[in-house]
């Protein structure tokens, strides 16, 4: 499954917040990552081979499946009076 990393370098899966980093050089903010789920861990990868993090799973909640896409910019509303 895929998730989009926030501008703060975090993502959320199964109610668990995971910080993957926003640092200079290896920052992952605003990128799409792939998450592999096992019984005890989440493995987060980027570009299908670069492992970013492997964290322990602390919840038993089911994982919500949804399509990942870039956020759209809001259109500016102008009053046409």
Overview of the structural elements:
With 81 residues, the protein is mainly β. 0% of the residues lie in helices and 37% in strands. It has no helices and six strands. It has strands at 2-4, 10-13, 16-19, 32-37, 41-46, 50-56. The protein has a four-stranded antiparallel beta sheet, with no helix packed on it. The protein has a two-stranded antiparallel sheet with strand order 2-3. The N and C termini lie far apart (47 Å). 11% of the residues are buried. The mean pLDDT is 82.
Topology of this protein?
Elements: E1 2-4, E2 10-13, E3 16-19, E4 32-37, E5 41-46, E6 50-56
Antiparallel strand pairs: 1-4, 2-3, 4-5, 5-6
Could you provide a short overview of the structure?
With 81 residues, the chain is an all-beta fold. It is built from no helices and six strands. It has strands at 2-4, 10-13, 16-19, 32-37, 41-46, 50-56.
List the strand order in the largest sheet: 1-4-5-6
Largest sheet: 4 strands, antiparallel
Overall, the morphology is globular
Measured by DSSP, the beta-strand proportion falls in 35-45%
DSSP helical segment count = 0
Task: Identify the quaternary structure here.
Answer: single chain
Descriptive labels:
single chain; 81 residues; mainly beta; two-stranded antiparallel sheet; 6 strands; 0% helix; globular
């Amino acid at each position: 499954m895929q998730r989009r990393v926030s501008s703060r370098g975090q993502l959320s899966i199964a109610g668990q917040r995971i910080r993957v980093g926003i640092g200079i050089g290896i920052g992952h903010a605003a990128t799409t990552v792939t998450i592999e789920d096992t019984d005890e861990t989440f493995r987060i990868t980027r570009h299908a081979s670069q492992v970013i993090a492997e964290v322990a799973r602390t919840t038993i909640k089911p994982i919500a499946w949804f399509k990942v896409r870039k956020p759209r910019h809001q259109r500016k509303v102008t009053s046409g009076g």
